[in-house]
User: Which sequence fits this backbone?
């Protein structure tokens, strides 16, 4: 279930694929040579300006958040991956598909952020985050993450039972992510980094919105007669 | 039994309701060729495979032209550019480092008037008269505009809310006031009340974490049922006295989500609906009872239908016998038939009763953005998982009058009305704008626009529109900000899709939106993902101005095509704004002009609303009138106007003929 332990690779492959399409580009492709040339001259100035503008330091809380959320997301993806094979109804399958799409992209964001800052990039494994404590490796479950028992329960259910458990567990899982954001923002010095703040805010609103949606789906499921 | 059924069923099923399903097209004008001009989109799409680069990327354009690109000034070069507002000849461009003011008198060479360094995310900007409003949301914004951030969780230095500047001297803005809010200001919208010339109102949207009460007294993230003053489930309205902007303050916190019951969601999986219908048919064949709830079939359980049949039997006087200690009646075929005939009505009543009943409080707790359209007294709120319609005739007390949800929508982001207020378009900023959501693998109905018709204050889903050209995984792309282009008699919009570029589309036919022009660049970095692209692009007095996150200010112009004629472009250019905030949508009006009359003639030719020989004759008459003057011109135009009215009855596009007749009559005065 390790999806993208080498974040750069997928990007590079895609870039290569797109470059290959380049030769087929046709139509009215225009360039604005004068503007571009003038702008090129400004590049040096722009590079110099980077140093002058607002750049906020990141903290260990940011690094922890961006690292821990990778495993959190990986577990959501594993749960969602089961939808097609476990007889989920199509509305749940569509939700699962969107969770996979969204959270896979976000894992890439987190891995890129960590790599850019030369931090250790955790593998995207659904069992939680490996942490070393006193020289012993521990696997930490982040808030909302399913226990191995819950994962087994979900994996063993099919059809409507799967749908009900999936929604119930994913609501729990998303609430955990919202809690992680809350903890991050409540920490001194955290989320000053623009990417971290924006990413955390997106996780917060996207998952809160999805919780609302899943609660409605769950209510619909529970109320369906027979 | 029945009541609990009603409660749970009703609650759950509301979300299953289908969309209106209507595909009626208002306007029914599908663009078709003007002779001699192509309407064929270039194939293969030149947007695919463009070479990347920050300032030397390859570009592709169709039916529009890049007039200029102006990179940001030094202190703004590394920060993201955000939204733009307009006043007179100036563009005010927000940036995460503050804002820059450009003079665009010469669109091919904008000049920097002011660069105001004051870091904040995301510096959403609006302008009204001599006042400039700038949003601040994140934890780093400082009252003193410093760049050092605010590491403390509670600090008196932090600004989250709206800064107010006096820009009477545009080269030296003065910070005259700040309004702090509990959740900061992600975006805001300026509402000009036609009845209140002394004040202007600002609606604040912000979904960020609630601040500590120690930092801003009164803020609380407790739910409203625990604390009636909860900072959740509300928006903020700021009242700004124009003579004393320093006295600007929150005047109300309308609870526009109050009693919001999950509205019908469009797009519930068709397979589920079909499966439910099949199960219902099988149950009926076996003698069971079924009913439809919001268009979806449900098999009713025996526990529910048993007591109903029993009561029908008793009502006709059937003898009661005791079975296992319980009274029972013998149900006949007639009883079953009676229930079968009445069951749908019963269920409708039960579900209907739920609509107004209390239920668990659904989200959202805030809006992302609100577009106010005082010209029609309405606002469109993009709020979490919902699109809301608000009555804003009382500016300080907006009231929710409609709500829609959509299972294909991730996060409702912004709204745009068409000019006559018969349609509303919402965007879905799936992935928050920093993710590549326009890849071949991303569904066309995800991260798209959803178009609704507005009938008597109710919204009816018609279609989705998404940028039709696939983008790479290196380009952040999703539906984002845009505005109407004032093509008379049509609904045409220009919209930024971040690194997906700019797309112009016609949504006159709400069920069949169609792209008619585009501009795109290759990825801002050819090798790695960085955030860039068009944050917003708005039509302003004849040009389209786009705020490019990483590349600066882009200015475009429309080029005539088979979709838009030169006359239509000329007519669009007659619409003048003194200022523009796209989220304070202005009602567009077209002054009388020959271009306007000719634009309608072009549209009548396209729609076949007037026979070709009549079109030719009408055009000759217009030319003759334009060459004449004084009374001769007036008489010729009045005659032409009458002639056009006479054609209305026999035309397939009578409404357009009437518009043209009126335009010509206006010209004769």
Assistant:
């Amino acid at each position: 279930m390790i999806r993208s332990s080498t974040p750069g690779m997928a990007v590079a492959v895609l870039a290569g694929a797109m470059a290959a399409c380049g030769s087929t580009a046709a139509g009215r492709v225009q360039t604005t040579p004068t503007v571009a040339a003038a702008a090129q001259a400004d590049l040096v100035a722009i590079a110099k300006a980077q140093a002058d503008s607002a750049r906020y330091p990141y903290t260990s809380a940011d690094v922890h958040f961006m690292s821990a959320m990778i495993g959190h997301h990986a577990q959501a993806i594993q749960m969602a991956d089961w939808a097609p094979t476990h007889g989920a109804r199509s509305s749940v399958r569509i939700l699962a598909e969107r969770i996979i799409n969204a959270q896979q992209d976000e894992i890439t964001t987190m891995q890129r952020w960590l790599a850019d800052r030369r931090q250790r990039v955790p593998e995207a494994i659904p069992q939680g985050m490996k942490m070393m404590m006193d020289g012993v490796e521990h696997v930490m479950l982040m808030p909302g993450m399913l226990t191995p028992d819950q994962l087994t329960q979900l994996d063993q259910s099919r059809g409507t039972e799967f749908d009900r458990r999936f929604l119930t567990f994913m609501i729990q899982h998303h609430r955990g992510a919202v809690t992680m954001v809350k903890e991050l923002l409540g920490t001194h010095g955290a989320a000053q980094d623009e990417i971290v703040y924006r990413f955390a805010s997106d996780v917060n609103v996207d998952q809160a919105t999805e919780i609302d949606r899943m609660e409605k789906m769950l209510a619909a499921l529970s109320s369906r007669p027979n | 039994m029945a009541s609990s059924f009603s409660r749970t069923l009703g609650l759950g099923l509301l979300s299953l309701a289908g969309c209106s399903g209507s595909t009626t097209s208002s306007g029914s004008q599908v663009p078709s060729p003007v002779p001699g001009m192509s309407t064929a989109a270039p194939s293969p799409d030149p947007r695919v495979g463009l070479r990347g680069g920050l300032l030397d990327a390859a570009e592709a354009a169709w039916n529009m032209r890049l007039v200029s690109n102006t990179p940001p000034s030094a202190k703004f070069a590394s920060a993201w550019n955000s939204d733009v507002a307009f006043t007179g000849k100036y563009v005010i461009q927000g940036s995460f480092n503050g804002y820059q003011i450009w003079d665009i008198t010469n669109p091919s060479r904008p000049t920097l008037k002011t660069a105001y360094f004051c870091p904040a995310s995301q510096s959403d900007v609006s302008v009204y008269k001599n006042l400039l409003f700038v949003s601040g949301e994140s934890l780093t914004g400082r009252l003193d505009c410093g760049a050092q951030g605010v590491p403390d969780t509670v600090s008196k230095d932090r600004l989250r809310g709206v800064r107010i500047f006096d820009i009477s001297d545009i080269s030296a803005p003065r910070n005259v006031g700040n309004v702090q809010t509990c959740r900061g200001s992600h975006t805001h919208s300026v509402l000009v009340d036609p009845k209140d010339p002394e004040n202007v109102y600002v609606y604040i949207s912000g979904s960020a974490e609630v601040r500590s009460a120690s930092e801003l007294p009164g803020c609380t993230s407790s739910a409203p049922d625990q604390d009636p003053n909860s900072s959740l489930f509300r928006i903020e309205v700021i009242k700004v006295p124009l003579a004393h902007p320093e006295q600007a303050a929150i005047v109300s916190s309308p609870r526009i989500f109050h009693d919001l019951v999950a509205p019908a969601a469009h797009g519930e999986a068709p397979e589920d609906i079909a499966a439910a219908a099949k199960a219902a048919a099988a149950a009926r064949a076996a003698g069971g009872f079924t009913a439809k709830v919001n268009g979806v079939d449900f098999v009713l359980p025996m526990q529910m239908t048993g007591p109903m049949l029993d009561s029908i039997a008793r009502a006709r006087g059937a003898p009661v016998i005791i079975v296992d200690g319980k009274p029972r009646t013998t149900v006949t075929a007639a009883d079953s038939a009676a229930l079968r005939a009445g069951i749908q009505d019963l269920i409708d009543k039960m579900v209907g009763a739920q609509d107004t009943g209390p239920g668990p409080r659904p989200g959202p707790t805030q809006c992302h953005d609100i577009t106010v359209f005082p010209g029609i007294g309405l606002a469109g709120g993009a709020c979490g998982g919902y699109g809301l319609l608000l009555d804003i005739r009382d500016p300080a007390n907006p009231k929710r009058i409609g709500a829609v949800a959509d299972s294909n929508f991730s996060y409702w982001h912004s709204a745009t009305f068409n000019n006559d207020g018969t349609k509303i378009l919402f965007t879905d900023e799936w992935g928050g704008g920093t993710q590549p959501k326009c890849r071949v693998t991303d569904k066309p109905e995800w991260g798209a626009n959803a178009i609704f018709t507005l009938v008597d204050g109710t919204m009816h889903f018609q279609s989705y529109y998404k940028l039709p050209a696939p983008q790479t995984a290196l380009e952040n792309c999703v539906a984002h900000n845009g505005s109407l282009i004032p093509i008379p008699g049509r609904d045409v919009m220009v919209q930024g899709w971040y690194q997906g570029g700019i797309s112009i589309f016609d949504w006159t036919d709400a069920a069949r939106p169609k792209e008619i022009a585009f501009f795109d660049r290759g990825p801002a970095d050819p090798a790695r993902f960085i955030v860039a692209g068009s944050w917003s692009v708005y039509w302003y007095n004849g040009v389209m101005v786009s705020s490019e996150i990483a590349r600066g200010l882009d200015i475009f112009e429309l080029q005539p095509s088979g979709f838009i004629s030169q006359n239509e472009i000329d007519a669009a250019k007659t619409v003048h704004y003194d200022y523009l905030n796209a989220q304070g949508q202005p009602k567009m009006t077209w002054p009388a002009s020959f271009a306007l009359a000719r634009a309608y003639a072009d549209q009548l030719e396209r729609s076949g609303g007037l026979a070709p020989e009549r079109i030719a004759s009408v055009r000759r008459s217009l030319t003759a009138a334009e060459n004449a003057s004084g009374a001769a011109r007036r008489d010729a135009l009045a005659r032409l106007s009458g002639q056009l009215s006479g054609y209305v009855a026999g035309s397939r596009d009578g409404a357009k003929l009437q518009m043209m007749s009126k335009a010509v009559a206006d010209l004769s005065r």
In short: Chain B touches chain A through 96 residues (CB under 8 Å). Residues 1-33, 352-360 of chain B have pLDDT under 50 and may be disordered.
